[in-house]
Write a structure and sequence with these properties.
- The protein is 36% helix and 19% strand.
- By secondary structure, the protein is α/β, with parallel strands linked by helices.
- The chain folds into two domains: 55 residues, DNA polymerase, domain 1 (Orthogonal Bundle), CATH 1.10.150; 274 residues, Aldolase class I (TIM Barrel).
- It has a ten-stranded mixed sheet with strand order 1-2-3-4-7-8-9-10-11-12, with helices on one face. A two-stranded antiparallel ribbon has the order 5-6.
- α6 packs parallel to α9.
- It starts with 7 loop residues before the first helix and ends with a helix.
- The protein binds S-adenosyl-L-homocysteine.
- S-adenosyl-L-homocysteine binds next to β8 and β10.
Length: 340
């Protein structure tokens, strides 16, 4: 087992069941996440006996960096996992800090028509440690602290719910990386039962919904998940979530030329979201050579934006990062596999 997948409670139980003091778990966490050692032997205030026990039961294996691409304010990392599978993570410099986008699965089963990740069906879920290591290794490589985390890389986080929650518990722990829950955002294509489960999670993690359409007719064409949980059900669940948690939700809306970017769509979207404590993030589509969708023109995006504003919907246009580094979900892995 990789030690970076252990919550502090796991370590406490492990220590106790081996007849050791459980407070040592906090010290071990300090070595791992504060001092960032890379060898069990460097844990100087931990007894040799405990270190030996840790060594027998855990490893500190890292992910293997296969490729790194840099562009203005953005870097993209392709990692290989112990079993040869590959995932990617993207680091973006914003004026408010460094935001990291990580993967949660190898491949994805959601099958959104515009998305590169789903061209590889889900091979497996990532373990918590494989998510923790994306943060630790990138922080080390760029020698910067990550201030914001988004679960928007390859995979559907709510199709790997338990590991994702465990991962958040590990990185949010004050003795861990201590990333604040309000600085973490989970993005989902809309798995309704998991949104319901997430309402009861005690941490104030942000929720983003990949909406991408104002009605079932368009959403069914581009997102398979809508056939399972149609838009009314999704919106009702989001309303329930907001009522329960008092948190504002983000709706992501990719602008696809001729598909969902008309003025009628904007008006319909405003009507759908009226009165909901949310904001809409309009995302210029990152075109990919394998998929025929085109991005909307700048003018169209601005018109759409204005229409939403006029209808009193909070709306922002996402800054475009990394079209040169294949930064959209799944593009780096996919291009790499094809030798590009
Ligand atoms: N499965 C989750 C999280 C991963 S996708 C989800 O669906 O939300 C993260 C976001 O990137 C989603 O909103 C997704 O629709 C969007 N996305 C996928 N491919 C894209 C592309 N080529 N250009 C812009 N956004 C894209």
């Amino acid at each position: 087992m990789n030690i970076y997948g252990q919550s502090i409670e796991d370590l406490e139980m492990f220590l106790e069941s081996n007849g050791m003091k459980k407070f040592k778990a906090k010290q071990i966490y300090e070595w791992l996440y504060d001092k960032r050692i890379s060898n069990f032997d460097d844990m100087r205030n931990i007894s040799k006996e405990t270190i030996d026990l840790l060594k027998i039961n855990y490893n500190m294996d890292m992910l293997k960096l296969i490729k790194r691409l840099d562009d203005v304010d953005v870097s993209k990392f392709l990692f290989e996992l112990f079993d040869g599978n590959r995932i990617e993570a993207v680091l973006m410099n914003h004026d408010y800090g460094n935001s990291l986008c990580i993967s949660t699965q190898v491949g994805c089963n959601m099958g959104c028509a515009f998305c590169e990740s789903g061209r590889l069906k889900k091979v497996r879920n990532l373990d918590a440690y494989e998510m923790v290591l994306q943060i630790l290794q990138i922080e080390k490589m760029v020698n910067k602290r990550i201030s914001h985390l988004v679960l928007m890389g390859i995979g559907e986080p709510f199709d790997n719910y338990d590991n994702v929650i465990k991962f958040i518990d590990i990185i949010n722990h004050p003795k861990g990386i201590a990333l604040g829950s309000r600085h973490i955002t989970i993005s989902t294509c809309g798995i309704v039962p998991k949104i319901k489960e997430f309402m009861n999670y005690d941490k104030q993690v942000n929720l983003a919904i990949s909406l991408h359409a104002p009605n079932n007719e368009i959403r069914n064409k581009i997102m398979n998940i809508n056939k399972v949980y149609p838009i009314e059900q999704l919106i009702d669940t989001v309303k329930e979530y907001i009522k329960k948690t008092n948190r504002r939700v983000t709706f992501e809306y990719i602008m696809l030329r001729g598909v969902n970017d008309s003025l009628e769509c904007a008006i319909e979207l405003a009507k759908l979201l009226r009165g909901i404590n949310c904001y809409v993030n309009l995302i210029p589509y990152n075109e990919t050579s394998h998929i025929e969708f085109k991005k909307s023109s700048k003018e169209m995006i601005l018109k759409f934006y204005d229409a939403l504003k006029k209808d009193k919907i909070n709306v922002t246009i996402r800054r475009e990062f990394g079209s040169k580094v294949s930064a959209a979900c799944g593009q780096l892995r996919s291009n790499y596999e094809e030798g590009l």
